[in-house]
């Protein structure tokens, strides 16, 4: 067995033990791809997996708008409320942090392993949901910037 197969089996076990269907499903799918030797899917997932995942995330968030469950006047009121304004600021800061994370990953791609490990810890022990490495990279960039300020 290769180290990649062992790692995926370990992640599959962690997914089952922690009752995290996301980790278990991802590890299982990657194991199937690896064991059936359909390696072309690895490059496809590597290139486009994040984009496809984000598309499905956006679709799930935007479904209430598509159902016409919200009146536009209510939507406008909510958006201009204090909570809505904070949500806009949060969205702007999050996308900025994602951009900083992308820059960091381009400069130091080896950090991705620590982010994946941290994501697994967050899923298993903190009940978190993995939505991608960019926010983890953005927070890492922020932490590094704060450390540099105090040097």
Q: Which value, in Å, is the CA radius of gyration?
A: 19 Å
Q: What fraction of the residues are assigned to beta strands by DSSP?
A: under 5%
Summed up, the domain count is 2
How far the N terminus sits from the C terminus, by CA atoms, comes to: 45 Å
| Helix percentage range | over 70%
Structural account:
It is found in: Cell membrane. Belongs to the UPF0756 family. It comes from Desulforamulus ruminis (strain ATCC 23193 / DSM 2154 / NCIMB 8452 / DL) (Desulfotomaculum ruminis). InterPro entries: UPF0756_TM. This protein is mainly α and 151 residues long. The chain is 83% helix and 0% strand. The termini are far apart. The chain has helices at residues 3-17, 21-35, 40-66, 72-80, 82-107, 111-126, 133-149. The mean pLDDT is 86. α1 runs antiparallel to α2. The protein folds into two domains: 1-38; 70-151, no CATH class.
Keywords:
83% helix; mainly alpha; single chain; 7 helices
Q: What's the short version?
A:
With 151 residues, the protein is mainly alpha-helical. The chain contains seven helices and no strands. The protein starts with a helix and ends with a helix.
């Amino acid at each position: 067995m290769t180290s990649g197969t062992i790692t995926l089996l370990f992640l599959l076990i962690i997914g089952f033990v922690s009752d995290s269907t996301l980790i278990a499903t991802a590890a299982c799918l990657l194991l199937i791809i690896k064991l059936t030797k359909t390696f072309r899917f690895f490059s496809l997932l590597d290139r486009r997996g994040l984009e496809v995942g984000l598309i499905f995330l956006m679709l799930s968030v935007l479904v209430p708008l598509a159902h016409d469950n919200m009146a536009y006047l209510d939507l406008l009121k909510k958006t201009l409320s204090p909570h809505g304004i904070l949500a806009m600021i949060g969205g702007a800061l999050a996308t900025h942090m994602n951009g900083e994370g992308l820059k960091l990953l381009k400069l130091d791609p080896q950090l991705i392993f620590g982010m994946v490990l941290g994501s697994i810890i967050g899923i298993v022990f903190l009940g978190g949901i993995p939505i991608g490495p960019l926010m983890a990279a953005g927070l890492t960039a922020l932490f590094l910037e704060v450390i540099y300020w105090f040097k």
